[in-house]
Structures are given as C-alpha cells and as structure tokens.
Amino acid sequence: MADKVFILDTSLRDGEQSPGVAFNQNDKLEIATSLEKMGVDYIEAGFPGSSPGDLEAVKAVASVVKGSSIAGLARAVPADIDACWEAVQGAVHPRIHVFLSSSDIHLMHQLEKDKEQVLQMARTMVARAAGYTSDVEFSPMDATRSDREFVYRMLTECIDAGATTVNIPDTVGYAIPEEFEQFIKGIQENVPNIHKARISVHCHNDLGLAVSNSLAAVTAGARQVEVCVNGIGERAGNAALEEVVMALHTRPDFFNVPTTINTREITRASRLVSDLTGMVVQPNKAIVGSNAFRHQSGVHQHGVLKMRETYEIIDAVEIGLERGSVLVLNKNSGRAGLKARLEELGYELTEEELSRIFLAFKDLADKKGEIDDRDLEALVSEKMRTENEVYRLELVQVSAGNHAVATATVRLVSPDGNIVDDAATGTGPVDAVYQAINRIVAVPNVLTEFSVKAVTEGIDAIGEVTIRIESEGRSYVGRGGDTDIIVASARAYMNALNRLLTTKGSRAPVAVETTP
Ligand code: KIV
Ligand code: ZN
C-alpha cells in the first residue's frame, strides 16, 4: 500500500471526556456517519467497559458504519476487553484499543503496581484482545513522562503478544515537538519487532502543542495520528483533526505523506460536533473558526481581491465552505429550489424531512426576506434536533417588561400524545418559560450555562441559544433557534430536557478511576 498517515478520530471517546459533554446514541451515530463520509480510517466510538449505555452506543455505531474501522477503548482488565469485543464485533473492521499506564508516577500512585506486574498485565490483556481480533492497538498511558527503556520493553512485549498498532500518548500534553520526534525515532531504533506494528500518536493540548507534536511524530515515521474534531477532548483537548489533516494536505512539499481524508467534509463535521457538544468554536480557531477566511486589513483585502493566494494558504472550498453562493432564496422560492440548494450544501434529506424544512423555510422567509446558507443550516439543525422528541413544544407566549411580572404560558405535547398547558411567573421571560416547562416535565435539573448568538447579521437574524443543564451528576446540552430569542430559549431547554429524558436510565455513571 502507498505510504499514508492513517487518521483515528476519537471525538466520540476522548472528545466525550470534555467537561460537560455527554453524547447519546443518536449523537454518536450522527457524528460517526459524518466521520465515515469524511473518510476517517478509524473511529474510536467509545469506552464500552465504562457503562452499559456506552457499550450499546458503540455497538450501534459498529453496526451502521461500514466505511471506517470501529475501535473501542479498554483498560487492561478482562471485563473491559470482553465488553469492548461485544461492542465492536459487529463492525466490518473491528479494533480493540487496550491502554495501561507506563509512567512511574502512574504506577506508584494510581495502579500501585511494580513494572513487572504491569508488563505482565499488558502482555496478557493484549493477548486476550488478539484472541478476538487481529486488529489490536496498545497504548502505554503517560508515555512521554515514562522511562523510555520501560516503554521500549512494554511495546516489544505487546507487539509479541499481538498488538498491530502501538500508540504513544502524550496524556498530559507535556511533550515538546523536537523531543517527541526523538522519542518516535528512539522507538524505531530500540523496539526490535517494531516493523510488525504501526506507530501511532495521541497528543493532548495542555501546552498548545498537540498538533505540532503530532506532526513532528509524522516526520519521524508515525503513520497513525489520533485526533478530535475541533480539538475537543479531556482538559485542553486533543490534536484537532482539521489542523493535522490540513497541515499534511497544504504542505506536501514538507511532509510528503498524504491522508485519504475528504477535506471538503471538514466544515460540516466541525459544525455538527459543535452543535452536539454545545462547545462553540472560537472565531480565530485555525481552519474552522468563523474568522479563518476573513480579511480585515485594507492591504490584505486588496491583495486577496487581486489574487486569493496573496493572503490565503488554503482555498476555503477545500474544507467545504462555499464561496459567493449565487442562488438567493426568498419567500417566492419553491420546494425544488430549496432542495437543490440543500443538496449543494451536502444535505441528503428524505421527502418527509424536506417537507418539514420547507414549511419552516417559508415561515422564516416571510419574516426575514432573503435566506442565506447560514439560515438554511440553522433551519436544518433545528429540524433534526426536534426529531424523536419525548416532549414537543407547541406554543410559547410571554408577557414581560420592567413594570410587569414576567409570565409565560407553554403548551407541550406529552409522550402519550396529550396536549398539556401550564403557566408560571419568573424573574424574566426566559425564567418564566423554563418554570412553566418544569411544571409539566417535572425533572429536577439545574441550568449551568446559557448563551445566545445571532446566526446571521441584522435585526431579523435567527438567534441560536445554547444551554447546559445538570441532573444527577450528568450534563446535557440543548440548542434551539428562532428569530424570537424567547422561543429559541424554550426550544433549547426542550432539546436539553429531551436529551436528558432519552439518556436517563440508559447509562450507569462513569466512576472517576475508569476514565483514561
Ligand atoms: O490520553 C491518553 O493517554 C488516552 C489513552 C487512553 C490513549 O486517551
Ligand atoms: Zn487522551
């Protein structure tokens, strides 16, 4: 096979370890499908041993996604390896990813085992995984703070036991690029059977060096890079998929080794992950930030207008952004025009989905006049969010003002199809709406985050509200959009509550010590 860098995306596992993020099965399926479309080689879909809910979610991904290999994470204990195999065995290409700490600090204070005991665990658990599948990845956790000779020994024994990929995690984001590059070279020189395995790297971003370290490892011969969309992940996150891929893609003169990623799917995947995690992408974020292709200075604008390459190293089209769309939609546009534009934007909708979006489109066009691509994307997201709802929001009405008690009436359709009305007062209109909804849904929770942003410019823009609520130690994100921000707030709350109701009971809480 021609030389290439394999991409393992762990947004659904390490990404889910971002504080406040919890995916349900549908979220995982949606993100996995988008990663598959992007051509990601391996999707690490979860940590099946951590909860029955995650095991089921990984199983669902394994049964639906056919174009990417599906990996599950497992601690080096029999129950985790067995649960992992149960979850991934339905995949076309299943992988078990076993991890075990290698640093003295972890051995002493976390595992409370000596080196020989740890080697024995690693060997036997890799062999157990290899009894299930020929695709086994092994990670010595905290490798960059470990005694190198010990890591070499651990890798040698794990490859002998059946590991086909050895992953070097910079678990706490401690490495420096030149040093990490030397480490990867050291592995090639000191692990005698390394030719039987692929070297992978998994870098965290505590010093903001995750992407640089990953790329330094590629120059030293690593051929798998573990990444997360938008750089989400534990603490400061993981190496960002879009940055690693676009660096390799933009500088073949330097790296001379490609990925097989369809870069045009990057923008959509980034938006989806931001939507489902509730983690807003910072405007100046490389590749996918909203400012990444905007030019402010007059000198730069002048240059770009004359020739794009004067101040741009990437054509925005390459990452799936549209430039200067010519098709303007308004209230006179028909279903066919809407369908064509949505298809150009990459949405494959059923006739029924299109009908629902068409109605919402007409409503919005009446209020707003011209509809651009950002409005359409917000509309599609809103409609997708309200599929499979437990409770459906039918009506919101508020009265508020500086000399009035904020009062709200809401109407919901309950799971058994009954229409339920209720009303409440609150400290402001949004609080009144939330209190009225609480009277019907009656699930104890605490609102921990609330933010509003305009999707487009202008007074008639769609307002998008993102909230986070907490219940029984878990947090649930909700999003809602509308030109009326009170309605958008109600939708966001319903979205979070519906996610809570869908997830509740399907997952056991993850104990702190099981989290890698
Ligand atoms: O950061 C880490 O060490 C991990 C391993 C489980 C690969 O996420
Ligand atoms: Zn990690």
Question: How would you explain this protein's 3D organization?
Answer:
The chain is an alpha/beta fold and 516 residues long. The chain folds into three domains: 6-277, TIM Barrel; 298-384, no CATH class; 392-504, Alpha-isopropylmalate synthase LeuA, regulatory domain (Double Stranded RNA Binding Domain, 2-Layer Sandwich), CATH 3.30.160. Helices cover 41% and strands 19% of the residues. It has 17 helices and 14 strands. It has helices at 25-38, 52-64, 78-88, 104-111, 115-132, 148-161, 177-190, 210-219, 241-250, 252-255, 266-277, 298-306, 335-344, 351-368, 373-385, 429-441, 485-503; strands at 6-9, 42-46, 69-75, 94-101, 136-141, 165-170, 198-203, 224-227, 392-399, 406-413, 419-426, 446-454, 463-471, 474-482. An eight-stranded parallel beta barrel has the order 1-2-3-4-5-6-7-8, surrounded by eight helices. A three-stranded antiparallel beta sheet has the order 9-10-11. Strands 12-13-14 form a three-stranded antiparallel beta sheet. A hairpin with a 6-residue loop joins strand 9 and strand 10. Helix 2 (52-64) runs parallel beside helix 3 and helix 8 crosses helix 9. It starts with 5 loop residues before the first strand and ends in a 13-residue tail after the last helix. The structure holds 3-methyl-2-oxobutanoic acid and zinc ion. Residues 14, 73, 99, 139, 141, 167, 169, 171, 202, 204, 516 line the site of 3-methyl-2-oxobutanoic acid. 3-methyl-2-oxobutanoic acid binds next to strand 5 and strand 6.
